[in-house]
Design brief:
This is Bifunctional NAD(P)H-hydrate repair enzyme. AMP binds at residues 414-418, 442. The protein is an alpha/beta fold. 39% of the residues lie in helices and 16% in strands. It contains 17 helices and 18 strands. The strands form two sheets. The chain has an eleven-stranded mixed sheet with strand order 1-9-18-17-16-15-14-13-10-11-12, sandwiched between helices. The longest helix has 27 residues, at 459-485.
């Protein structure tokens, strides 16, 4: 799914009114009606008090359309106008007149001077936040912040229209108290990037996209900087297998890593590469891991380093399709030096994680030795060592994009919504859960991505697909283990089920048993 920028949304609205020969007021009516339909389907006329807070721009206009439909359908509605400026949008004014024609009680005008002692919001009430939309470009004033805090203190269910008020689409929040904390956000046509970033995801517990009929040709042809990756996006990536295929068709992964006490990381990455579908997997490890690895994974071949305890001299005579580097590697001076020698002569595609990344961070000139489209998979601290500190998530993304462009690498920012960055393009993953915050989860991902590259997926496709499968496998596993008991090995065990899930059709709704007459 494409995530449209603020500017692209405005352009889409403009083109839609031109191509569909409708007014902007008609488009607002369409948006507000969709919100009403969503609420009406869930409330079925329930007389829960609904407090609709409208700003004086187009987001407020959407709220007025909603409030009018709620009133005409007999809901218990109180509408408020957050009146903090003299600048009212044309469509807001049109819908302000329309709601006055259907209700005996006109919207309550809230000036920026009064307090809120007379506004009573119960814990079982519903708040609709239609105060600011995507056009907000400065912090709300102090009076509005107090209103937002009243919402939060009430503990009432809060529904935001398009985006929680006070949240920007393209820059960081200056003050937490200046943003509405929404229980649910109904976002027009596509979700917003801020729903998926660590610092701003807390402002909406859940979100849903409402289709308001933006011009289809525009939606299809417009290229966006950000894409949301779900099953629909990864299915076209999947490569089916021919009947007469053999293991040589699916590549040879080498997992290069391990040190005394950390052979388990190589074990996990190797097993994941096999489960991803690689034809052959060889582990290059210190001698101390030979017997344990040969015993634990009979399908994996092993080459040992000269050293008993760490990687000291990378030397092999096979030709791997891809090499996963860094899991359990350690960062000793001898290991760092031998990795530098290896990078100077290596031509194979690389996936680099863990201590491989830490060694690159210690000597950044090594980054220039990486083959184009090398995949780097840092967690937040490893990323900070690579690109330096950042002040907010938007600065982080800009720095990662610049880093990717400079060194021609793919950077996977691991997190709740892992983001694959390829130059100026971002791919946000939708699978996964908090149970994945466990030792070895990243090692599994390194093996998965390596296994996909070995099978002929491009490094970018392998990263996007690998992250999706990794998260989906964990989502399947928590059904049996829960968040706390999930371990990395469980993720490997359900990779096969994650593949199978790609082709599962949604179950039809169950029919209610008929009552006997």
């Amino acid at each position: 799914m494409k995530l449209f920028s603020k500017e692209q949304i405005y352009e889409g609205d403009k083109l839609t009114t031109e191509r569909q020969n409708i007014s902007s007021t008609d488009l607002m009516e369409r948006a507000g009606t969709q919100i009403f339909n969503w609420m009406h389907a869930r409330m079925q006329g329930a007389q829960v008090p609904i407090h609709v807070f409208c700003g004086i721009g187009n987001n407020g206009g959407d709220g007025l359309v909603l409030a009018r439909h709620l009133v005409t359908h007999g809901y218990n509605v109180v509408t408020y106008i957050v009146n903090c400026s003299d600048k009212r949008s044309k469509d807001f004014l049109i819908n302000y007149d329309r709601i006055k024609s259907v209700t005996k009680k006109w919207p309550t005008m809230l000036s920026c001077k009064e307090d809120f002692t007379e506004i009573e919001i119960g814990v079982d009430d519903i708040i609709v936040d239609a105060i600011f939309g995507i056009g907000l470009n400065r912090p709300p004033n102090d009076w509005v912040k107090v209103l937002f805090q009243k919402f939060k203190a009430s503990k009432a269910f809060t529904l935001s229209i398009d985006i929680p008020s006070g949240l920007y689409t393209d820059k960081a929040v200056e003050e937490e108290n200046a943003v509405v904390y929404a229980g649910y956000t109904l976002s027009f046509q596509s979700p917003k990037l801020v729903f998926f970033l660590p610092e701003t995801e807390k402002y909406t517990v859940q979100w849903e996209v409402l289709d308001i009929g933006i011009d289809r040709d525009y939606l299809i042809k417009t290229e966006t900087e950000v894409e949301l990756i779900s099953k629909h996006e990864v299915l076209p990536i999947y490569k089916p297998r021919r009947k007469f295929a053999h293991k040589g068709d699916f590549g040879h992964v080498m997992i290069l890593g391990g040190s005394y006490g950390k052979i388990g990381a190589v074990n996990l990455a190797s097993r994941a590469a096999l489960s991803a579908g690689a034809g052959l997997v060889t582990a290059y490890i210190p001698k101390c891991g030979y017997h344990s690895l040969q015993t634990a994974i009979p399908e994996v071949m092993v080459i040992t380093d000269d050293s008993e305890t760490h990687i000291s001299n990378i030397n092999f005579n096979i030709e791997p399709t891809v090499i996963g580097v860094g899991v359990g590697l350690g960062t000793s001076a001898e290991t760092a030096k031998t990795l530098e020698v290896f990078l100077k002569k290596n031509k194979a595609p690389l996936v680099i994680d863990a201590d491989g990344l830490n060694i690159l961070s210690q000597k950044k000139s090594l980054l220039k030795l990486l083959p184009a489209q090398t995949v780097l998979t840092p967690h937040p601290k490893e990323l900070e060592r690579l690109i330096g500190k950042w002040s907010n998530d938007f600065e982080k993304l800009e720095k990662v994009k610049a880093f990717s462009e400079k060194y021609k690498v793919i950077v996977l920012i691991k997190g709740a919504h892992s983001i694959t960055v390829n130059k100026n393009k971002l791919y946000i993953n939708t699978t996964g859960n908090p149970g994945m915050a466990t030792a070895g989860s990243g090692d599994v991902l390194t093996g998965l991505i390596s296994g996909l590259i070995a099978q002929g997926y491009t490094p970018l496709a392998a990263t996007i697909f690998g992250v999706y499968l990794h998260g989906k496998s964990a989502d399947i596993s928590i059904e049996d283990y829960g968040y706390q008991s999930l371990i990395a090995s469980h993720i490997i065990e359900t990779i096969g089920e994650a593949y199978i899930d790609l082709f599962k059709q949604p179950e039809p709704p169950k029919e209610e048993p008929q009552q006997e007459k």
